[in-house]
Design goal:
The chain has 12 helices and 10 strands. With 399 residues, the protein is an alpha/beta fold. The strands form 2 sheets. Strands 1-2-4-3-5-10 form a 6-stranded mixed sheet. A 4-stranded antiparallel sheet has the order 7-8-6-9, covered by helices on one side. The chain binds zinc ion (2 copies).
Length: 399
């Protein structure tokens, strides 16, 4: 980097720091308000209204509802190209509120968007900042709908930061397919006339046995897990109906397609073994695998390191699934993580919800906002960074 570029970068980093500091109390209040009033996917009316009001105040051009979703929004600042998008999530979990910490995701996204816009203005740089409100990440896939409705058109790169026990780069995530499987048989008295019955619960159990045997031949990175949803009423009635649900995952979309085809055969096999009729339907929204972007990961790690967040390298690639997978297959993207607890707490737990409302969690959210704004600034102002991110994206795309 040349001396002048370095001075400009330092000045931009200073503006970013001051802008986040200027809005710190507002951002923390937003995160706490959403934390205290959790709303489920596609019902995030308050969270959406609070965020869009702030973005309007910061002179972003806000569109909401967005792409047919009442609680989605798009907020633009600046014009022209390139376009850097920061995504916000704000849905809660049933029963445990913000046990995934999405209240911090949206506060960090707004802080990053604001700080990035101010740094671009101060340095008289061109480029557009988009803060995009993406509802219903938990199972219902707001981003899948958004991608399908053209929400990624014109977006050059995209980023979001998710709370975690650790500050780590994007580790990727698995593609997921979810199925509801039902079997129909014939009920009969289980003692007096069992020979007249056809047992639907036996079909469910045969399917579980088949899946368990199959694990030995699956790649290490594949995951499959099921639950019984309906297994009969009384032991003396041979169940004429039984139902189960399965999640199938792989970091490779094509492996998941192969797994899905095999799973369908197993369902048919279980029905054949028990002389029952099977039905299988897609449950919730399938998500694609998430492609990490090495360039954007490197920029994030540099930024969080400078901010004293002590980033780590992840122990293993991401095993969960996220609707950001579909987004990451449309443009260079990074779904990075920031630590909100000094000890390891499992995501989707009440302890994690506590951390998402803690003083430490809120302070880390502000740093994550600062880090994302720094990445965005470098992306928008350094052509070489844009080319490198694009190269990484195209390399992931190749089979
Ligand atoms: Zn979650
Ligand atoms: Zn989450």
């Amino acid at each position: 980097m040349h001396g002048k570029d370095k001075d400009t970068m330092q000045a931009a980093d200073r503006t970013i720091r001051e802008s986040v500091a200027q809005q710190a109390e507002t951002l923390k209040a937003l995160a706490l308000k959403i934390h205290a009033q959790p709303e489920l996917g596609f019902e995030e009316k308050k969270a959406c209204a609070w965020q869009t009001a702030l973005l309007k105040r910061w002179s972003f051009a806000v569109q909401t509802p967005w792409l047919g979703m009442d609680t989605a929004y798009r907020a633009d600042w600046g014009d022209g190209n390139p376009v850097f998008c920061i995504m916000a999530e704000y849905d809660a979990l049933p029963g445990i509120g913000h046990g995934c910490g999405h209240n911090l995701i949206c506060a960090a996204a707004l802080g990053a968007g604001f700080a990035l816009s101010r740094a671009l203005a101060a340095q008289k740089q061109t480029g557009r900042v988009v803060v995009m409100g993406t509802p219903a990440e938990e199972s219902k896939g707001g981003k899948v709908k958004l991608v399908a409705n053209g929400g990624m058109k014109g977006i050059d790169a995209v980023m979001m930061a998710h709370p975690s026990s650790r500050t780590v780069p994007d580790t990727g995530s698995t593609a997921i397919q979810r199925f509801l499987v039902g079997f129909k048989g014939q009920s009969a008295h289980a003692a007096a006339s069992p020979e007249l019955g056809r047992n639907a619960l036996d079909a469910v159990m045969a399917l579980f046995h088949g899946v368990n045997a199959w694990r030995q031949q699956l790649p290490e990175t594949s995951r499959i897990h099921g639950i019984v949803l309906d297994g009969g009423v009384m032991p003396n009635i041979i169940p004429d109906a039984a139902r189960c649900g399965f999640y199938l995952r792989s970091p490779d979309d094509s492996v998941l397609r192969t797994m899905t085809a095999r799973f369908r055969k197993m369902v048919r096999g279980a029905a054949l073994m028990t002389d029952t009729e099977a039905s299988i339907e897609t449950w919730l929204t399938p998500y694609k695998a998430r492609w990490p972007n090495a360039t954007m990961n490197r920029l994030y790690i540099e930024a969080v390191d400078q901010l004293g967040m002590k980033p780590r390298q992840p122990d293993h690639p991401g095993r969960g699934s996220s609707d950001f997978g579909d987004v990451s297959q449309k443009a260079p993207g990074a779904h990075v993580y920031f630590g909100i607890s000094k000890k390891t707490v499992p995501c989707h737990s009440t302890q994690f919800a506590e951390a998402a409302g803690s003083r430490y969690g809120l302070d880390q959210m502000l740093k994550a906002a600062e880090a994302m704004a720094r990445v965005g600034y470098r992306y928008l102002t350094e052509p070489e960074t844009r080319r490198a991110a694009r190269r990484d994206f195209l390399a992931a795309k190749r089979p």
